[in-house]
Amino acid sequence: MAESEMFNKGLAVRRDVLGTEYVDGSLAKADDFMMAFQRITTEWCWGYAWTRDGLNRRERSMLNLAMLTALNRPAEIKLHVKGAITNGLSVDEIKEILLHATVYCGIPAGLDAFKAAHEVLKAEGKLS
Fold first, then answer.
1. What does the pLDDT read at residue 1?
2. Overall number of domains in the chain
3. Same domain as 106, residue 89
4. When you count CB atoms within 10 A of the terminal residue's CB, does the N or C end of the chain come out lower?
5. Residue 128: its pLDDT value, please?
6. Which domain holds residue 34?
7. What is the pLDDT of residue 3?
């Protein structure tokens, strides 16, 4: 199936934020079943939402970290902490976002978010 213009726009943003190696690896591993998900997330999330005017990538990363904390999705938080770093967020800003989300989402969700972020920040050499 030929990819849409929205897919191609999304693919470029997705690669910029999450890294070409990660994104291309996800696409390469996708069979026909999983490729349906790869298409929808690349087209809708990265092509439609992330390319809109109104918020920049940095602000979108902030929102993602807060929403993923609310949803208690540590695996996605890890991925988006790396993206947040790419988009210019500092360790202190990431910490403040997670603290703010913890107040509204609860200690268990906040703890999972902090653990996930801490793991990534250490691996990326952002924490000693």
1. 55
2. 2
3. yes
4. C
5. 87
6. 1-52
7. 79
CATH number of the domain that 109 lies in? 1.20.1290.10
Same domain, 7 and 37: yes
Q: In this predicted structure, what is the pLDDT of residue 51?
A: 97
pLDDT of res. 2 = 64
Q: Is 62 exposed, middle or buried (0-12, 13-18, 19+ CB in 10 A)?
A: buried
The contacts of residue 3 (CB under 8 Å, 6+ apart) are: 11, 39
